[in-house]
Amino acid sequence: MKPFHLVVPSMASLIISVGAIAASQTLYPTEDIHIADVGIIPVGTPMQELENHQGKLEVEISGVQPVADTRAIFMSDSQRILLAALLPQASDQLQVGSSYTDAYGNQWRHVSLTTTVPDQVVDSQQPLWQQASQLRDKACAVCHAAPEPSQLTVNAWPATIRSMGSRTALSQQQLHLLTAFFQYHAIHQ
């Protein structure tokens, strides 16, 4: 099959001005954010704005993580939407809340991470999902009908995107955006 090349408008057109951000609102990165000594915050992750520091935003990310594995923060134990992929040294920066056991006997704990991110954010996920929908319609439809997010569960989409994404000319960043789109709109069981 011939590689498919897709030209997508720059995410820079989606970035909002930091001065326009009201305090304590939810913000979403327009691309994966790599933070030294913390890790990666994926595109579309809900972050609560705490403070604005001249083009840098102090934000909080809240979720859960397995007690035995502190490398990630997820939206919930049953909805494995990745909110942050953490470096080992980032565990010192976590605020740890209560622990609990899920239906399968796995130990989880509530956590939050406060960090500083660049101002490449939007105040709604909608522009990100519009971008992802265009990617899906053009890239996926080359070989088959464009899939609907509700065709699979939240936890099934990452492996599906990895598998199918290797057959496209989409960048890793575009595949991450598609993964987020499908997960946030998937079947929640």
Question: What does it look like?
Answer:
This protein has 189 residues and is an alpha+beta fold. Helix content is 19%, strand content 31%. It contains 3 helices and 10 strands. The chain has helices at 126-139, 157-165, 172-184; strands at residues 26-29, 33-35, 39-41, 47-53, 56-66, 72-74, 82-86, 94-101, 107-118, 121-122. It has a 6-stranded antiparallel β-sheet, with no helix packed on it. A 4-stranded antiparallel β-sheet has the order 2-3-7-6, with no helix packed on it. β6 (72-74) and β7 form a beta hairpin. The longest helix has 14 residues, at 126-139. Mean pLDDT is 87; it is low at 1-22.
Number of helices: 3
> What Rg is obtained from the alpha carbons, in whole angstroms?
17 Å
Beta content: 25-35%
Q: Which secondary-structure class do the elements indicate? A: alpha+beta
Report the mean per-residue pLDDT as an integer.
87
Could you say which overall geometry the principal axes of the C-alpha atoms support? Answer: globular
The major sheet is characterized as: 6 strands, antiparallel
Number of extended strands: 10
> From N to C, what is the helix and strand string?
EEEEEEEEEEHHH
Low-confidence regions:
1-22
Helix amount, in percent? 10-25%
> Which strand order do you get reading across the main beta sheet?
8-9-5-4-1-10
- End-to-end Cα distance: 36 Å
